[in-house]
Structure formats: C-alpha cells, structure tokens
Amino acid sequence: xxxxxxxxxxxxxxxxxxxxxxxxxxxxxxxxxxxxxxxxxxxxxxxxxxxxxxxxxxxxxxxxxxxxxxxxxxxxxxxxxxxxxxxxxxxxxxxxxxxxxxxxxxxxxxxxxxxxxxxxxxxxxxxxxxxxxxxxxxxxxxxxxxxxxxxxxxxxxxxxxxxxxxxxxxxxxxxxxxxxxxxxxxxxxxxxxxxxxxxxxxxxxxxxxxxxxxxxxxxxxxxxxxx
Length: 227
Ligand code: SF4
What we know:
With 227 residues, this protein is mainly alpha-helical. It is built from twelve helices and no strands. Helix 5 packs across helix 6 (74-92). The chain has helices at 2-8, 21-30, 36-49, 53-57, 61-68, 74-92, 100-103, 111-121, 131-139, 148-158, 164-177, 205-211. Helix content is 52%, strand content 0%. The chain binds iron/sulfur cluster. Iron/sulfur cluster binds at residues 139-140, 178-179, 184-186, 189, 191-192, 195, 197-198, 200-201.
C-alpha cells in the first residue's frame, strides 16, 4: 500500500517552507490549528525580521504578534516562539538540536513536531503522526491504536526505517487529497483493493474523482475503475 501511494504522490513533501532547522521548527509550531499555506504566508516576514534564535528571543512581542496574527491564536503562538527561542539560546547556543530526546524537551515541542524537524531538516527518519496519518493508518488496517505515539511505534514495525519520513508525507498527502475525514474518495483511491475500509466513502469512480482535492502528479490520472 505504501509503494502504491508513493507512486500516486511521488512529489509528496513537507508543505511548510523553510531554509534551515530553526525555520522549520518555528513553522511547525505555528502550524497548530491552521494550514501550512497560511504559515507559509507569514514566515518570510518573520524570518526576514528575526533571522536567528537570538533575534527571535529578543523580538518585540507586539511586533511579532502583528506578524503572526493571520495564523490565529497569535498571542499564544508569539509566546511559544519567544519561549522556544529563549531556550534555544540559553541551552543550545541558538541552534536546533538534532536529537529526538533534546527536541521534545523544548517548550511547545512534542513528538510530532520533533519528527517533522528530524525527518525534513536533519535527514533522520521519523514518522509524523498527525490527524491524517492516524486516521489513515487505522482505516487501512495498519493499527487499531488511537494514541499517536502508539500509532507511530505500530506503523514503524511495518515499514522500513529509511521510508519513515516519505511514508509520513505520502499518508498526509493522501489524507488531504483523497482519503478525507468526512467523505473519502474510495472510488478514486489507488489502494482501495487492499483497504478494509473501502466503501466508507464514495465508491462511484466519477463521483469519487470529483472529491479529489489539489493536484495529482503531472500526467497521472485518478484511478477510475481500479477500485
Ligand atoms: S479505500 Fe477509502 S477509506 Fe480506504 S484508503 Fe482509500 S479512500 Fe481511504
């Protein structure tokens, strides 16, 4: 199923824009309760104004709140960024640590954020269990676990470590584009033949194709009839 989904989304990637680990860490913290697209709209101004952890830690709170306002919960998020940057400066010389055990000790950073940063900024394989990943892993019969950490460990047993980061991207892409929370497009799903949940969504190929969101790979067709 992973191989087939990877063929459907060969271009799957982290949808947050970043140039270095600090930018990805901050962008991931900002992505709570909003979309990656919205975060990508504010981060260029944020990092142009405050490029380093020391700059962020010393930022004027009101000024940062204005920059972060479009992401929602901007006061809490400004607080998070200021605290996070201060700890990076105090305990890590302003650098983002590259180990899970250090990342999860940073304020506001859980396993999900840590794995995003490890997988995408440090090249360390990591499984990112967000809402899409958990829902799809259960629908596809990979695990019954609800707890994200248990899902991470259960799926990690099934898939080679080297594939963990890409697996995370591919499942998140599939969740955003095809296997939606409310109305999955089962009739246009490339793994329908193996999926124990096939039929919980729209199975008619034409109607299902209408439910697909975003782009398919260049030249790829929805798998009409394959279901
Ligand atoms: S068959 Fe339906 S439930 Fe299963 S992965 Fe595809 S879209 Fe999701």
